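Narrative of accomplishments. A recurring question from our advisory board has been how the design workflow behaves on a single, concrete structure rather than in aggregate. To address it, we present the structure tokens for one chain from the evaluation set, followed by the sequence designed for it. No filtering or post-editing was applied between the two.
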């Protein structure tokens, strides 16, 4: 950018970043900001298609929020006034987390309940998918139930029970933006279309670095009569 000073990029300690360092940062932003959000959106629309009653409730919530405004006129402030749609998004991220696992290096010894100790310096693989499907924390974990995330039902639940963006100092830097993207796309889609399953092409989960579906995730979108 010509109007910015031409100084070398540096990390927080003032060390100059190499081309490889800059490339790694760019790869991280592309991976975290695109692949993951696309996976989250696909599975969200799939879950709304599987549960038309929840889809319709989202649609009514969006219509009530806009109150005659065109759907393109949704504002940033509107996104905090979609509580049920937000619950649907969170439950979809629980059931189908875009990133299924992360690794972390222990910075200190960690004592487990059974007395064993994970030594400092050990790299642990943390299963986000497994955490989100733990029946001790999430009864009937395979059931899509957005009301798990109501204020009442969230009381007393550990914040580490739901970690689609990881947790702690190394959590996802873009999680608030990602949630905003999910809310906007969900609102714009349900306001314009009915989302249905493609019965001839059911999805099969394909856990890679990102949770995908083999051969894609196929849905049918039908324009709503009033906006057709």
């Amino acid at each position: 950018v010509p109007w910015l000073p031409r100084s070398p990029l540096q990390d927080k300690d003032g060390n100059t970043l190499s081309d490889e360092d800059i490339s790694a940062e760019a790869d991280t932003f592309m991976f975290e900001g695109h692949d993951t959000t696309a996976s989250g959106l696909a599975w969200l629309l799939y879950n709304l298609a599987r549960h038309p009653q929840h889809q319709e409730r989202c649609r009514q919530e969006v219509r009530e929020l806009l109150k005659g405004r065109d759907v393109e006129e949704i504002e940033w402030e509107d996104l905090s006034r979609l509580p049920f749609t937000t619950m649907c998004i969170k439950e979809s991220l629980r059931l189908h987390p875009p990133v299924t696992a992360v690794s972390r290096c222990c910075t200190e010894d960690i004592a487990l309940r059974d007395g064993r100790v994970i030594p400092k310096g050990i790299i642990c693989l943390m299963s986000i998918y497994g955490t989100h499907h733990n029946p001790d924390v999430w009864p009937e974990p395979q059931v899509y139930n957005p009301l798990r995330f109501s204020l009442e039902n969230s009381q007393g639940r550990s914040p580490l029970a739901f970690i689609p963006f990881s947790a702690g100092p190394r959590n996802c830097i873009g999680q608030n933006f990602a949630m905003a993207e999910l809310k906007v796309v969900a609102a714009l889609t349900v306001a314009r279309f009915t989302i249905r399953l493609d019965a001839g092409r059911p999805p099969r989960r394909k856990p890679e670095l990102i949770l995908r579906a083999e051969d894609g995730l196929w849905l049918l979108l039908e324009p709503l009569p009033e906006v057709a």
